[in-house]
Amino acid sequence: MPLDPAQIETLSGISTATLTTVLLKKGLRNVWMRGTKPLRAGQPRIVGPAFTLRFVPAREDLATPASWASPTSTRAAIEAMPEGVVAVVDAMGIEDAGIFGDILCGRMQKRGVAALITDGVVRDAAGVLQTGLPVWCNGVAAPPSVAGLTFVGWQQPIGCGGVAVFPDDVVVTDDDGAVVIPAAFLGEVLAEAPEQERAEAWIMKQVEAGAALPGLYPMNAETKARYEQAKEDGEA
Amino acid sequence: MPLDPAQIETLSGISTATLTTVLLKKGLRNVWMRGTKPLRAGQPRIVGPAFTLRFVPAREDLATPASWASPTSTRAAIEAMPEGVVAVVDAMGIEDAGIFGDILCGRMQKRGVAALITDGVVRDAAGVLQTGLPVWCNGVAAPPSVAGLTFVGWQQPIGCGGVAVFPDDVVVTDDDGAVVIPAAFLGEVLAEAPEQERAEAWIMKQVEAGAALPGLYPMNAETKARYEQAKEDGEA
Amino acid sequence: MPLDPAQIETLSGISTATLTTVLLKKGLRNVWMRGTKPLRAGQPRIVGPAFTLRFVPAREDLATPASWASPTSTRAAIEAMPEGVVAVVDAMGIEDAGIFGDILCGRMQKRGVAALITDGVVRDAAGVLQTGLPVWCNGVAAPPSVAGLTFVGWQQPIGCGGVAVFPDDVVVTDDDGAVVIPAAFLGEVLAEAPEQERAEAWIMKQVEAGAALPGLYPMNAETKARYEQAKEDGEA
Amino acid sequence: MPLDPAQIETLSGISTATLTTVLLKKGLRNVWMRGTKPLRAGQPRIVGPAFTLRFVPAREDLATPASWASPTSTRAAIEAMPEGVVAVVDAMGIEDAGIFGDILCGRMQKRGVAALITDGVVRDAAGVLQTGLPVWCNGVAAPPSVAGLTFVGWQQPIGCGGVAVFPDDVVVTDDDGAVVIPAAFLGEVLAEAPEQERAEAWIMKQVEAGAALPGLYPMNAETKARYEQAKEDGEA
Amino acid sequence: MPLDPAQIETLSGISTATLTTVLLKKGLRNVWMRGTKPLRAGQPRIVGPAFTLRFVPAREDLATPASWASPTSTRAAIEAMPEGVVAVVDAMGIEDAGIFGDILCGRMQKRGVAALITDGVVRDAAGVLQTGLPVWCNGVAAPPSVAGLTFVGWQQPIGCGGVAVFPDDVVVTDDDGAVVIPAAFLGEVLAEAPEQERAEAWIMKQVEAGAALPGLYPMNAETKARYEQAKEDGEA
Amino acid sequence: MPLDPAQIETLSGISTATLTTVLLKKGLRNVWMRGTKPLRAGQPRIVGPAFTLRFVPAREDLATPASWASPTSTRAAIEAMPEGVVAVVDAMGIEDAGIFGDILCGRMQKRGVAALITDGVVRDAAGVLQTGLPVWCNGVAAPPSVAGLTFVGWQQPIGCGGVAVFPDDVVVTDDDGAVVIPAAFLGEVLAEAPEQERAEAWIMKQVEAGAALPGLYPMNAETKARYEQAKEDGEA
Which is an annotated Pfam family here (chains A, B, C, D, E, F) (predicted)? Predict the structure, then answer.
């Protein structure tokens, strides 16, 4: 289920902070993936459908360099990724084996993958940064994936940073990390989030102008009226 | 791949401690599931093929009491379990939502499931104990699974307590916890473990008789000769 | 707000597992206190209003044996406890300093305190057990509270095991641990939980009689009809 | 108890490293708040009296966007902060819900709050940085406070990063994090810390000149004499 | 430095809770080893000089079954233990490799070792219990030590459960765990602890008789006078 | 055992990622030290023999500023360090006491120490950075070592970040952290790692040119032939 360009443009204007507020109001408190941070400061906000990958712990007979040539390998998974997807990798939070290095990230970049998100870590950080692929991860480690992880498949339901992610859920990332919008909630989020973002921007301006918080944030009836007026006047 | 009765009988005579030693000598250091302990003291040693279940984290729209009636539910998984299997449940180590209570454990017991192993916890501990199902778990918690977990399927590769478990691997449990014997290693383990167990029993007798450790454990050449003689004499 | 005897009797018949299910259906997923377990096997189910105590970390100038004589001491807090309350102590999960030993627990028992719940630990476990006070805690440790904790007050909102507890919330404990029923939800819980408990007991009987899970748990329309009939017939 | 400008100036010349050494010599080993780091590199050293805020865990009925309008809200707490205070927020180390975003930090900046310190995290990191408020925290997260936290009050004793903080204790922050000077120790610290800082600076110069450590750091009698002479000569 | 029988007898009458209180009054807050608990309920209180053992993490080339025959092996360490010592083993808190099983514990028991204390775990729990050696540990695990640990020596300073232990420090254990009395403090502890224990026993009797805590614990001047009288009267 | 300049030059051209791959193929999966990161971005790759230091937990009677003048002090250890060594410090992962500050790091820099590696933290980060000593550590903290650590010796086997390190093992560090090459494996690593690095660089070029991963990484027979040809042609 690819996103259409208008959807991507809309979501690219919404912070992950605002998205979590909108989803919480719908009863979803657990949509922000713990422990995944931008690998490089200033990466752009990314929006795309989730393409999931799954690891289980390493067993020495299975997690070997030889396994990299198997049909169920991370290599095969990468070749299956359509352009524009966000690869979301369940590494069970393991921090002492890098899921991918420069070669695999370089290939993802070539294939037009929008970003890589994992609750694990990458290796050869210097090389990964050179590929230009936007990466959100839990840090870096030198050892290869097979030192701690066995790859078992793609496009299955996964957990990533304590959050359930299903193929085709929508993922949005920025400096605050990565948030999943469940596919079934996409329409509502697209409808409501821009207004939330707009209201908070107007509130921030009032704060900059010296306004006190009570009655402003959240808005009471009087503030709401002022805000509606500002919108009419093209000032919000 | 059911185990035959002779295989079960042989493995029932081997401690999980000995099994881990035998597997380590073959290069497998990561076969003991962390954080899963007998729910009741004195549970018998259990041997059986793994039947795997998998959870991801809870998302409020999916992890609901209503989901218990879905085709991909723990209920359906239990009805798919053949007699004699050991159910191994990947709960990602989550300790604040019980995967099963008395009703599900009672049904597993009725179906002839040999044991339940999880790196998560069970709920309604008093009721679970009454069902008589042997359980190895990480403790108990009152909340239902949906408070923290979303069920996603069965008979897939899983991680349990930091160990990879594949359907039809063999699981053995005792007071020291639960060990997985990868299916491909079963033959070797059946061939070698009984001798290891026998040698350690003979060594223990020497210790009880006052022998010092150096040269005895591990055995040097002289001790080995004495042990071989003892075997011939029917004393080991 | 003391509980009346009928309320206590009703709740004494409901497991904490059932209470968490009832509260989850009302949107409350976080009511079970993590890390607090029965100090002694087989303690009775306890029901009572929360009487809260609060610690912050130790600072060597404040957390001293001399502080035990101060007006804001654990001693003063205990003397303020009415009969029948459940003392709930926020120890921030600290496991290396015992909040109370035999003397303080003995005094609580004398005052008719119903139980002590903490996400911390007690000290002088042998002595505490002798007092007969029912205790749910996170283990035992020899050092006194002042080795790690500074006491700061009572009957304030606290966190205990990752759960918010307010004075006069109702606490219920059993082998699965301790659950808080927010005061505002008490009426609904009293109204609905007994039926939930009754239904689960009837389901368990069907399982014991060999029934399969799908359609039974949760009940489909046909099963519901059978259950309603059983109730009419006095068989559920 | 506001600090006078001379006190602030003196403490602004002392590193938190030196402050912890001075306090340790007085028996206080636990004054540095764990897990709180500068949000932006190169933030200036900040000195001010602590203004404390306190959260407990989230309960879905209480921790709602609606609660932000309650009289016991973070908004009310911020409006109560005098100019020059350091806001110290007990978030129990929770890392998956941001205590404040750009709007609340913007308001604190407007009110002349000197800095924000928390063992929790902030949200909308990009926006918070734009407000210019100096922040020490445990990272960033997108979700709002109510996803994990319930606000319960201000100017109470709190724990922050495993350290007890009381209103009007003095807080000093720099690149090494945040240290609390208990109010009762302020006089002694002001009297002794500058000399400690001066001595260490002189020692560092000797190291740069090639001196070996034994006898230099800590100083033996001969070195002490040289140092005293250097002070007389205006060279230390 | 063996303890003399009178010292052992005196300390055998003092709980570890009381010992930590006495040591805290002398400025030692960190003497109780975290994470080590009785392997069997009801083990007697043990007193003895520490005999230390030290592990570092496993490296596959060193941590092998073959290493068990090396001169720097756990076997050699055990043969070097004098009668009456308490073996204290630094396993860095590792919980997935058992430091010793039945054979090594059996040999320690034969050699008259008073007890085994570790912040790690033992293996073959059933076998270890049969040897009769009193053990305090952090749980049980099936894998052998070499699955996670490399043995490096004995009678060196170690950390155990976050506490520094030096050879010939005195260790006391009971249901609350294990406490180290630094060798230099032994005289003072022997002189003061019995009186502390006696006073607390008298206070407990007052509590049982219904006395309130303020003024009693800690004792105010009036209570102290009553206690002194009780001692004279042979009633304390 | 100093390294010769040619060995240092060779290893300076190999990433720690490649070293872990080479060592894993020899059965060593645990050679990368967890939790130690560059203190400053862009530090050069460092190669040198390990010079080990060891701490145990703090005990208030031993871990005092006075102890800094003892013969078994960190000061004495630093004066014993030969030029070119990499100091590797076992701080047991403790994050709330800085092992060294500017003065000790300045002295190490003066003595020609190549780098400081620890699983603990440093203090006075600003001052340490000014010394120019390359540091890999687990963060920064203001308190002095004696707030949490007791120094016990140097050039002993240690654990650092969950890895065994022996004096004269070789340590290599870069942006991915620090890896130990056991002394016995140095020859093999020097012989094989450069070819591994060369092959991966050639593969990366193919990826940049648009090649797909299967058959390329790892190389199948055809790719291997192409690579060998490229080497002959001076293009790899």
Answer: RraA-like
Domains of chain E as residue ranges with CATH: 5-187 (3.50.30.40), 192-232 (no CATH)
Asked if D171 and D49 count as a contact pair (C-beta separation under 8 A), the reply is yes
* Ramachandran quadrant class, E225 (left: phi over 0; alpha: psi -120 to 50; beta: rest): alpha
Mean pLDDT of chain B: 96
Mapping DSSP to helix (H, G, I), strand (E, B) and coil, where does residue B48 land?
Answer: strand
What pLDDT shows up at residue B1?
58
Work out the minimum CA distance from E172 to partner chain B, whole angstroms.
27
- Strand, coil or helix: F70: coil
Q: What is the DSSP letter of F109?
A: H
Does residue C79 register a pLDDT over 70?
yes
What is the tens place of the pLDDT at every residue in F122-177? 999 999 999 999 999 999 999 999 999 999 999 999 999 999 999 989 999 999 99
Our CA angle for C100, E13, E11, nearest 5°, is 105
Q: pLDDT 10s digit of each residue in chain A, 236 long?
A: 579 999 999 999 999 999 999 999 999 999 999 999 999 988 999 999 999 999 999 999 888 888 888 888 999 999 999 999 999 999 999 999 999 999 999 999 999 999 999 999 999 999 999 999 999 999 999 999 999 999 999 999 999 999 999 998 999 999 999 999 999 999 999 999 999 999 999 999 999 999 999 999 999 999 999 999 999 999 98
Q: Considering only alpha carbons, which residue of chain E is nearest residue C148?
A: E29
Whose CA is closest to E150, among E226, E99, E205? Answer: E99
Those residues whose C-beta lies under 8 Å from the C-beta of residue C187, and which sit 6 or more positions away, are: none
The whole-number pLDDT of residue A1 equals 58
Q: Does B149 touch chain C (CB under 8 A)?
A: no
Interatomic CA distance for residues D141 and D120, integer angstroms: 10
In total, chain B counts a number of residues equal to 236
Query: What whole-number distance in Å separates Cα of residue D201 and Cα of residue F126?
Result: 13
Chains that touch F (3 or more CB pairs under 8 A): A, D, E
Q: Is F90's pLDDT higher than 70?
A: yes
Write the ipTM.
0.96
What is the C-alpha separation between A198 and A191, in angstroms, rounded? 13
Interface test with C, best of D20, D30, D59, D62 (most C CBs within 10 A): D59
Confidence of residue D139 (pLDDT cuts 50, 70, 90): very high
Scored b (16 or more CB within 10 A) or e, E102-140 reads bbbbbbbbbbebbbbbbbbbbbbbbbbbebebbbbbbbb
So what's the pLDDT on residue A70? 86
- Give dist(CA B195, CA F40) in Å, integer: 55
Residue E9 CB burial class (10 angstroms; 0-12, 13-18, ≥19): exposed
E20 touches chain F (CB under 8 A): no
Query: Cβ contacts of residue A194 below 8 Å, gap of 6+?
Result: A10, A13, A14
Q: State both tokens at C152.
A: 């700061």
Contacts of C153 in chain D (CB under 8 A): 157
What residues of chain C lie within 8 A of the CB of B148, using their CB?
Answer: 29
* Minimal C-alpha gap between C64 and chain E (Å): 8
What is the pLDDT averaged over residues B205-214? 97
Contact E231, E205 (CB under 8 A): no
**Closest partner CB to E61 (pick from F28, F58, F157):** F28
Size of interface C-D (CB pairs under 8 A): 72
Degrees (nearest 5) of the Cα angle E94, E73, B211? Answer: 115
Q: Taking CB atoms and an 8 Å limit, are C21 and B124 in contact across chains?
A: no
Look at residue C1 and tell me whether its pLDDT is greater than 90: no
**Residue of chain E nearest B205, judged by CA positions:** E103
